[in-house]
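Q: Structure for this?
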Amino acid sequence: DAGITQSPRYKITETGRQVTLMCHQTWSHSYMFWYRQDLGHGLRLIYYSAAADITDKGEVPDGYVVSRSKTENFPLTLESATRSQTSVYFCASSDTMRSRPQHFGDGTRLSIL
Amino acid sequence: GDSVTQMEGPVTLSEEAFLTINCTYTATGYPSLFWYVQYPGEGLQLLLKATKADDKGSNKGFEATYRKETTSFHLEKGSVQVSDSAVYFCALSDSGGANNLFFGTGTRLTVIP
């Protein structure tokens, strides 16, 4: 079935470790996004990508790295995890720039000890 | 900058009660407005949207009207069900071309039998 798959669903790691969250979509949508969801903040955009090899910062990009070598994959890496990055992370996609709404994955709950 | 303000939760209602969740926005241009719903353990799903003033979005018995004069987009449902228990997010998409959604902080609704 078409959709967005995030992995892992749950992850516990330690401060200073590198961790990568995976996102895969089967629609061949051009645009992909990473959001974090925190109490009191709703969802905030971390990074987005308009196409393979094109990425741009969102509202809260510090401490995160993304890549988009293939249209269907958009991994998010925390190079040196900090406790403040404990959150629920959502990946989303859309087919055109003005095509809103976006389709969301089920999220990755990340805990950094 | 653009922003969305939602009523504080949580909201607890009895089945068949009337629901209103308030949402007001601040935007410099002519934004599109959205309501998303997040069921437990899942990603966000679009519930309804409105793209210009006086538009009414509706879906699954929920309605919201884009009121430019009061900068509001309140969500309403005449008779809630237990299955409507979820977190509801109001969101705004600006017209400047940047592919982004500005989310409110979410309102948790619990419907009791």
